[in-house]
C-alpha cells in the first residue's frame, strides 16, 4: 500500500468561485427582473388618483363651533359629584358621582375639573401627573359652565421614547443591517399609505393591490436590509411563492367563508363614507399583507441555512442538502405556526373573553362572524408560510448546485510505486485517502464518509518489492470503527 499527503490551497475565493457567484446572480436576475418590471407596471397602472370627492368623512375629532380640544396635566383626582350634574342638582334632582381629574391646562389658568368617562375610570383610571386631552363644552352649554369631558391620554412622549429605544437596540445588536431594516420598514409603511390604502378607498382591485404592494415592499425591504446577493434573491423568490399561495388562498377563503367585514364599528363607518369601498376587499387585502413579516423571516433564514450548509459541505448531494436544510425548516415551521396563532389571539383577546362568556356551542362560537376573520387570517397566513419553506429551500439548493460554487482544490494522492495523481474538486480540509488494493484494486479518496470520492487506478506493480508504508493517520470513519471495537 502506498501513501500520500494533501495540500490545502488558499481559502480566499478564486476567479472560478467569483465567476460562479456572478452566474448565480445572473440566473436569479433573469427570473426576478421580469417579475419586478411587471410589478412596477402594475403599480403605475393602479396608482391612486387622489380624488376623494366621492368620500364623505365624518371626523370624530372635528368640533362644532365653540367646542375645542385642550390638553393639560392632571394634578389630583377625586370621586365626587359630576360637574355635568350641577344643572340637575339646581333643578332639585339628584346628581351622579364620577371620577373628576383636576387638570392644569397647557394654555394656562387655574385648575379645571375634567369629568372622566366611566369606561376609563373602570379600566385604568387617571392619576396625578397624567397628561390628558379633553373636550371643552363651556361655550355651547352656557347652563353648565366648566363642562370638560375626558377624550384621551396624550401618549406622545412614552411612544416616542419606546420607538427610540427600539431603534437603539436594533442598531446596537444588528448594527448597519439593523439600521437599514428600520429604514426599509419605514419605506414599507410609505407604500401602504400612498398606494394600498388610497387604492382601497378608490375601489381598485383589492387582490392586485395587496399582491403588488406586498411584492414592492418585500423587494425593497429584503434588498435594502440584506444587500444584493444570491442568498437574498433566493429568499425573495421563496417569498414571492409564499405570497402567491397566500393570495390564492385569501381570495378563495374570503368568498367561501362569507367574510363580510361588518363585525365592528369601524367597518360601518367605512360603508357610509363611500360606495366604492368594498369591505370584503379590505379583508382580502389584509389577509395578504398580514403574513408579510413572518414570511420574510422564514425565507431569508432558510436561504441562509442552505448556503451555509453548502459552504460547509460542498460535495453533499442535492437530495442530502435539501433534506438537511428541511430539518431546519421543519423546526422553523413548528415555531412560526403557533407564533402567528398566538399573535392573532393576543390581538383579539377582548373579543375572545367576550365570546367565552356566551352560552353557545364551541363550533358556533368559532365560526361566528366575530372570530371567523381572525381564524381565517391565521390559517391562510400559515398555509402560505409553511409552503414557502420547502419552496425556498428547493430554490436555494438548485441555485447553489447549478452554479457549482466551490473552490477546486488539488489533493495529491500517493499510490503504490511512488506515483502521485491529482484529484480536483476535493475538500482538503476533510479529505483523506486510502488504497484498498485487496478489494477494489485502486485508490479511493474518502471525503466526509461518503462513497463519492474519485477512484484512481493502481498500476500493476507485479512482483517488485514495495517499501514499507509509512504510518498513516486514521480517517474519521476508521477512528469510529476502532473506538467501537
UniProtKB/TrEMBL annotation:
InterPro entries given in the database record: YibE_F
Q: Does Heme appear among the keywords?
A: no
User: Which stretches are tagged as biased composition: Basic residues?
Assistant: 476-485
Record's keyword terms, sorted: Membrane, Transmembrane, Transmembrane helix
Tell me where the transmembrane regions lie.
26-47, 153-174, 181-201, 207-225, 234-253, 273-295, 336-358, 378-400
Highest taxon of the source? Bacteria
* UniProt xrefs under Pfam families: YibE_F
Q: Where is this region: Disordered?
A: 439-485
This one is known as YibE/F family protein
Q: Which organism is it from?
A: Arthrobacter crystallopoietes BAB-32
Amino acid at each position: 500500500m502506498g501513501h500520500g499527503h494533501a495540500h490545502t490551497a488558499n481559502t480566499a475565493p478564486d476567479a472560478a468561485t467569483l465567476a460562479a457567484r456572478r452566474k448565480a446572480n445572473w440566473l436569479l436576475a433573469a427570473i426576478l427582473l421580469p417579475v419586478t418590471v411587471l410589478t412596477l407596471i402594475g403599480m403605475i397602472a393602479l396608482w391612486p388618483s387622489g380624488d376623494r370627492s366621492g368620500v364623505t368623512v365624518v371626523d370624530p375629532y372635528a368640533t362644532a363651533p365653540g367646542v375645542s380640544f385642550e390638553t393639560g396635566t392632571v394634578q389630583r383626582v377625586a370621586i365626587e359629584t359630576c360637574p355635568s350634574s350641577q344643572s340637575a342638582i339646581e333643578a332639585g334632582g339628584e346628581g351622579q358621582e364620577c371620577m373628576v381629574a383636576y387638570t392644569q391646562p397647557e394654555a394656562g389658568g387655574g385648575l379645571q375639573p375634567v369629568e372622566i368617562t366611566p369606561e376609563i375610570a373602570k379600566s385604568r383610571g387617571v392619576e396625578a401627573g397624567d397628561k390628558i386631552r379633553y373636550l371643552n363644552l363651556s361655550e355651547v352649554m352656557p347652563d353648565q359652565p366648566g363642562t370638560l369631558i375626558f377624550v384621551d391620554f396624550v401618549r406622545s412622549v412614552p411612544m416616542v421614547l419606546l420607538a427610540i429605544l427600539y431603534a437603539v437596540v436594533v442598531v446596537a445588536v444588528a448594527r448597519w443591517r439593523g439600521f437599514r431594516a428600520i429604514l426599509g420598514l419605514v419605506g414599507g409603511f410609505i407604500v401602504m399609505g400612498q398606494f394600498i390604502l388610497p387604492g382601497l378607498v378608490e375601489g381598485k382591485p383589492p387582490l392586485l393591490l395587496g399582491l403588488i404592494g406586498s411584492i414592492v415592499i418585500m423587494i425593497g425591504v429584503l434588498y435594502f436590509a440584506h444587500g444584493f446577493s444570491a442568498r437574498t434573491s433566493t429568499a425573495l423568490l421563496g417569498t414571492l411563492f409564499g405570497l402567491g399561495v397566500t393570495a390564492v388562498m385569501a381570495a378563495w377563503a374570503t368568498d367561501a367563508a362569507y367574510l363580510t367585514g361588518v363585525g365592528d364599528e369601524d367597518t360601518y363607518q367605512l360603508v357610509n363614507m363611500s360606495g366604492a369601498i368594498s369591505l370584503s376587499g379590505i379583508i382580502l387585502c389584509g389577509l395578504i399583507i398580514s403574513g408579510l413579516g413572518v414570511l420574510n423571516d422564514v425565507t431569508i433564514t432558510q436561504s441562509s441555512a442552505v448556503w451555509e450548509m453548502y459552504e460547509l459541505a460542498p460535495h453533499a448531494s442535492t437530495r442530502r442538502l435539501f433534506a438537511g436544510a428541511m430539518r431546519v425548516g421543519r423546526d422553523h415551521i413548528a415555531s412560526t405556526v403557533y407564533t402567528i396563532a398566538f399573535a392573532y389571539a393576543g390581538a383579539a383577546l377582548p373579543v375572545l373573553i367576550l365570546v367565552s362568556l356566551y352560552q353557545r356551542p364551541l363550533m358556533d362560537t368559532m365560526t361566528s362572524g366575530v372570530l371567523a376573520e381572525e381564524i381565517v387570517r391565521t390559517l391562510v397566513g400559515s398555509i402560505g408560510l409553511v409552503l414557502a419553506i420547502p419552496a425556498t429551500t428547493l430554490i436555494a439548493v438548485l441555485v447553489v448546485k447549478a452554479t457549482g460554487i466551490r473552490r477546486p482544490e488539488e489533493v495529491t494522492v500517493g499510490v503504490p510505486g511512488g506515483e502521485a495523481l491529482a484529484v480536483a474538486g476535493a475538500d482538503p480540509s476533510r479529505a483523506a485517502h486510502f488504497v484498498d488494493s485487496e478489494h477494489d484494486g485502486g485508490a479511493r479518496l474518502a471525503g466526509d464518509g461518503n462513497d463519492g470520492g474519485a477512484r484512481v487506478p493502481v498500476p500493476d506493480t507485479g512482483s517488485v518489492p514495495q517499501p514499507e508504508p509509512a504510518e498513516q493517520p486514521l480517517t474519521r470513519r476508521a477512528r469510529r470503527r476502532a473506538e467501537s471495537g
